Amino acid sequence: MVSKLEYEVEVQGMRELVARLNPDRLLGPAIKKAMSEVGKEGRAQARAVAPRRTGRLAGSITYKLSRPLPLTDIPRGVAVVVKALSPRGYYYPRRLEFDPRSRHRNWFMGAMESARGKFEGMLRSAAHDIERRFGGGR
């Protein structure tokens, strides 16, 4: 004869824990804010050092948040984008950045490198915000 025992276990606070672990609520706002701040700072740094003749190059610098992670609304990252075209139709920022004959070589990467320290602070702030959210505002 086989005896069968059944138990029902209720974990108090489980619903609250699952709600706190919701990535869109826990991570989403802090990560979106940090990525936007990183993009704005990168754009500002690049615009500040962009070679100026007509202003077209600096005016074309923008940033965009990447596609969100699967099943969330959280961006994967951020990109600072330069879209200026020459009158002949080529992307001259690329030429200025990489052409060995250009006197503006590495202007863009230099701007991003100089902003790196600020990026780290912005991401650290996002991590603290996530910790506060998980801890219930403590």
Defining traits:
single chain; 138 residues; mainly alpha; two-stranded antiparallel sheet; 6 helices; 2 strands; 52% helix; elongated
Write the layout of secondary structure elements.
Blueprint: H1 14-20, H2 23-26, H3 28-49, H4 56-59, E1 61-65, E2 78-82, H5 92-98, H6 107-134
Antiparallel strand pairs: 1-2
Helix pairs in contact: 3-6
- Per DSSP, the total helix count is 6
Helix fraction by DSSP (H/I, runs of at least 4): 40-55%
Low-confidence runs:
none
Number of extended strands: 2
**Any idea what the radius of gyration is?**
23 Å
pLDDT average, as an integer? 86
Net shape: elongated
What order do the helices and strands follow? HHHHEEHH
Strand content: 5-15%
Biggest sheet details: 2 strands, antiparallel
The termini sit apart by: 55 Å
Spatial order of the strands in the main sheet? 1-2
**Helix/strand class:** mainly alpha
Report on this model:
The protein has 138 residues and is mainly α. The chain has helices at 14-20, 23-26, 28-49, 56-59, 92-98, 107-134, and strands at residues 61-65, 78-82. The protein starts with 13 loop residues before the first helix and ends with a helix. The relative contact order is 0.16.
Brief rundown of the structure:
This protein is mainly alpha-helical. The protein has helices at residues 14-20, 23-26, 28-49, 56-59, 92-98, 107-134, and strands at 61-65, 78-82. The protein contains 6 helices and 2 strands.
